[in-house]
Amino acid sequence: MADLTPSARRVQDVLDAIGLGHAVVEREASTRTSEDAANAIGCTVAQIAKSLIFRTKQTGRPVLVIASGVNRVDEKAVGALVGEKIERADADFVREKTGYAIGGVPPIGHAEPPLVLIDEDLLALDPIWAAAGTPNAVFRLTPDQLVSMTGGQVAAVKKAS
Ligand code: 5CA
């Protein structure tokens, strides 16, 4: 535990403050994408809780959508839920609002508290895994814990495929 890289360490510190015993696991193998993470962990892509950052178009607020790794996010549905059109955030916005780079954005501990929506499909999967600050770090949790630690709203956010 002592040798996590600094960004993963920051996530571990947030998890320690939450106090439910979650442990960041840093690996040699990439966990940069949902597919990478599932391969490294040995779980299904669906069990990867990917943290996607959007930006509200008018007011420029960060919106965090935590979605199952197999789902595409329906931006119109998210816009309707937050009451404003949204767009995909660029890398600089992600870094500024979360404090982390794309590929390692965790669901908790962001620099600016975002609006949080959680893909309802994640509630049927246990355990799930989320990014933990770097493209090589993840932590395991239950969907209920994801809801409680983020304060997110569980919603239908996936695109019909
Ligand atoms: N560590 C993994 C598994 S948890 C991870 O973070 N996956 S992820 O899917 O949550 O993060 C990668 C996401 O970053 C992509 O799905 C994509 O939505 C977003 N992304 C990748 N490249 C860009 C880019 N150039 N601009 C904006 N968003 C991007």
Model description:
The structure is a single chain. The chain has one domain (6-155): Alpha-Beta Complex (YbaK protein), CATH 3.90.960. 28% of the residues lie in helices and 24% in strands. The protein has helices at residues 6-18, 34-41, 75-82, 91-98, 143-150, and strands at 24-26, 48-56, 62-68, 86-88, 115-119, 128-131, 137-141, 153-155. Strands 1, 2, 3, 4, 5, 6, 7 and 8 form an eight-stranded mixed sheet that branches. A hairpin with a 5-residue loop joins β6 (128-131) and β7 (137-141). The longest helix is centred in the first third of the chain and has 13 residues, at 6-18. The structure holds 5'-O-(N-(L-cysteinyl)-sulfamoyl)adenosine. 5'-O-(N-(L-cysteinyl)-sulfamoyl)adenosine (5CA) binds at residues 31-34, 37, 48, 50-52, 88-91, 102-105, 130-131, 135.
How many structurally independent domains? 1
CATH class: Alpha Beta
Distinct helical segment count: 5
Give the bound compounds. 5'-O-(N-(L-cysteinyl)-sulfamoyl)adenosine
Roughly what fraction of the amino acids lie in strands? 15-25%
Question: How would you classify the quaternary structure?
Answer: single chain
What summary fits the major beta sheet?
Answer: 8 strands, mixed
Write the H/E string, N to C: HEHEEHEHEEEHE
What fold name goes in the CATH topology slot? YbaK protein
Q: Overall 3D geometry?
A: globular
Question: Judging by the overall fold, what is the CATH architecture?
Answer: Alpha-Beta Complex
Instruction: Please estimate the helix content.
Output: 25-40%
Can you give the mean pLDDT? Answer: 97
How far the N terminus sits from the C terminus, by CA atoms, comes to 40 Å
Runs with pLDDT <50, length 5+?
Answer: none
Q: For the CA atoms, what is the radius of gyration?
A: 14 Å
